[in-house]
């Protein structure tokens, strides 16, 4: 299975090669989709993990044991159905098909399981009905940009 996670790094771990250990010890593949990690500062990584469910669970337990907060990316992306007026613009923008038009209702559906939190729909939506937040410091800019 494939899952995408938002990892919050405490500054104490910011210089350690933690993610490389996932391949070595937990037999999961990873793909870093986005990251901001600076020495001696809290940081984050958007990480795609591929592998057996139990392996991914063990890898996440390992990360959490080191103080890394791991959260499914689905919880970081929001589709505001009250603001959305179903124009469909975002469905042509999303590179992974996480937004699509459902027939026959012709309603726009957001599938967080597919979303990679790229943020393209945020600026593409005329009424800012999509919001992506990676950490508290940048949340405001994603919501209102
Ligand atoms: S672009 Fe915005 S308003 Fe249009 S369907 Fe997508 S989320 Fe809704
Ligand atoms: S953040 Fe990117 S992947 Fe997620 S729904 Fe928006 S365009 Fe699609």
Explain this structure.
By secondary structure, the chain is an alpha+beta fold. The protein folds into two domains: 2-67, Alpha-Beta Plaits (2-Layer Sandwich); 78-132, Alpha-Beta Plaits (2-Layer Sandwich). The protein has helices spanning 20-26, 53-65, 89-93, 120-124, 136-144; strands at residues 2-9, 29-36, 43-50, 69-72, 77-79, 99-102, 107-110, 130-132. Strands 2-3-1-4 form a four-stranded antiparallel beta sheet, covered by helices on one side. A two-stranded antiparallel sheet has the order 5-8. β6 and β7 form a beta hairpin. It is elongated, with a radius of gyration of 17 Å. 28% of the residues are buried. Residues 136-145 have low confidence and may be disordered. The structure holds iron/sulfur cluster (2 copies). One iron/sulfur cluster binds next to α3. One iron/sulfur cluster is lined by residues 77, 93-94, 96, 98-99, 115-121, 130, 132.
Ordered list of secondary-structure elements with their pairings:
Blueprint: E1 2-9, H1 20-26, E2 29-36, E3 43-50, H2 53-65, E4 69-72, E5 77-79, H3 89-93, E6 99-102, E7 107-110, H4 120-124, E8 130-132, H5 136-144
